[in-house]
Amino acid sequence: MQLDTVIRGGMVVSEKEVRHVDIGIADGRVAALAAPETLLPADTMIDATGTFVVPGGIDTHSHIAWRYEDGGRSRDNFQTGTAMAALGGTTTIVDFVSVMPGESLRQQTDARMAEADGMSLIDYGFHPILSSADDQVLSEIPHLIDDGFGWFKIFTTFEYRVDDSGILRLMEQIARFGGLAGIHAENHEICSQATADLVASGRTHVVDFPLSRPAIAESEAIHMVSVFARQLDAPVWIYHVSGADALAAVEESLDLGTRIRAETCTHYLAFDDSVYSGPDGWQFVIAPAIRDAANQARLWEGLANRLVSSVGSDHCAYDRNSKSAGIRADDFTKLETGAPGTEARIPFLWSRGVSEGRLDPRQFVRVASAEPARSMGMWPRKGALDIGSDADLVLIDPEAVWTFPEPDPAFGSDYSLYTGLPLKGRPILTMVRGTVVVRDGASIGQPGHGAFVRCSVDDRHWTSEALARADGQRSPDRAGADRT
Question: For the domain with range 55-385+454-467, which CATH number is right: 3.90.78.10, 4.10.91.10, 3.40.640.10, 3.20.20.140?
Answer without folding.
Answer: 3.20.20.140
